[in-house]
Design a protein that fits this description.
The protein has a 6-stranded mixed beta sheet with strand order 3-2-1-4-6-5, sandwiched between helices. It starts with 7 loop residues before the first helix and ends in a 54-residue tail after the last helix. It is of the alpha/beta class and 260 residues long. Helix content is 38%, strand content 9%. The chain has a single domain, classed as HUPs (Rossmann fold, 3-Layer(aba) Sandwich). The relative contact order is 0.15.
C-alpha cells in the first residue's frame, strides 16, 4: 500500500488563498506542474485531488500507463472520475482486461460511446474500413469514435488526467506535467510524463497490475483493432498505430490542442 511521504511542496498550498482556478487557471496549472515535479506519480495524483476542488477525469485507454494510474487511484481511494472511450472497435483482449480490472479493484470504469447517428453517417459515407483510404478519412473516424466522445467525458471537468509519456512521440515530448488547455477550458495533467516505458513496466510487475494480453504478442500501444498491429524489434512503440500512414505524429486527435 502506498504511503505518503512528507515533502514541503506536497503539503503546502499551491496558490494564495485569495486565488482561484477560475481567476487565473494558467497560473494554477503552472503551480501544479512545479509542485508535482519532485513527487512520485501516486503523490502527484493525491496532490491533484487535494488542490483541485472540481471534477477530475482520468481517461483510461487500458494501456500499461493507464493500468498503473488506475492502480494508484484505487489504492488511495481517490475521488477521480475514471472513464474509457469505447469506440466499438476495440480488441477482445481489451474488453477482457476491462472486466478483469474492474474485478481486481472493485470499481467500475465508466464507458462513453460514439453518437449513434454520427457513426451511422460516417459508415454510410466512408464504409466500414474507409479510414485506410486517406488520412482525412482516418481523422474523421477518430473524430466520431474518440474525439467527440472525449468532449462528453470532459464536460464540466476542472482537470483531465492522462497516461501520456514524453518519450512516446515528438509531439508528446513537448507536453508538461500540467498545463491549461484554452480550447477545452481545463487543466491537462500528465502524471507519468517523465517516466520511461521500462520504468512503467517495472512498476506494473512489482504490483502485479493486470495488463493487456496483447503486450506479450508484440503489441506496444494498443487502440482500435483495425488500426493497431504488433511492432517489430527496434520499432518505436507508436509505430503499431495507423502503420499504413507515412510520417505524421501518429495521433488520433485526443492529445492535440483543441481550437478555442
Amino acid at each position: 500500500m502506498f504511503r505518503e511521504t512528507s515533502h514541503p511542496a506536497f503539503e503546502a498550498s499551491l496558490v494564495p488563498a485569495d486565488s482561484s482556478p477560475s481567476s487565473d487557471p494558467v497560473a494554477k496549472a503552472r503551480a501544479l506542474a512545479q509542485a508535482m515535479a519532485p513527487l512520485t506519480p501516486p503523490q502527484r495524483l493525491a496532490l491533484l485531488r487535494r488542490e483541485l476542488d472540481g471534477r477530475l477525469v482520468f481517461t483510461h485507454g487500458f494501456g500499461i500507463e493507464g493500468q498503473l494510474l488506475f492502480h494508484w487511484i484505487c489504492e488511495q481511494n481517490l475521488a477521480i472520475d475514471v472513464v474509457t472511450l469505447d469506440t466499438g472497435r476495440l480488441f477482445p483482449e481489451t474488453y477482457e482486461l476491462w472486466e478483469k480490472t474492474e474485478a481486481r479493484y472493485g470499481r467500475r470504469i465508466r464507458a462513453i460511446y460514439p453518437d449513434g447517428a454520427a457513426l451511422e453517417r460516417l459508415v454510410a459515407r466512408d464504409g466500414m474500413f474507409g479510414f485506410y483510404d486517406s488520412v482525412e478519412a482516418r481523422h474523421a473516424c477518430c473524430g466520431v469514435r474518440k474525439v467527440k466522445p472525449l468532449e462528453e467525458a470532459l464536460s464540466g471537468a476542472q482537470a483531465w488526467l492522462t497516461g501520456v509519456r514524453a518519450d512516446q512521440t515528438d509531439t508528446r515530448h513537448a507536453a508538461s506535467l500540467a498545463d491549461f488547455e484554452h480550447g477545452r477550458g481545463l487543466i491537462k495533467v500528465n502524471p507519468l510524463l517523465d517516466w520511461t516505458r521500462a520504468r512503467v513496466l517495472a512498476e506494473v510487475a512489482a504490483h502485479d497490475v493486470p495488463i493487456n494480453a496483447l503486450h506479450a504478442k508484440g503489441f506496444a500501444s494498443i487502440g482500435c483493432e483495425p488500426c493497431t498491429r504488433a511492432i517489430k524489434p527496434g520499432e518505436s512503440e507508436r509505430n503499431g498505430r495507423w502503420w499504413w500512414e507515412q510520417g505524421g505524429s501518429r495521433e488520433c486527435g485526443l492529445h492535440l490542442p483543441k481550437a478555442g
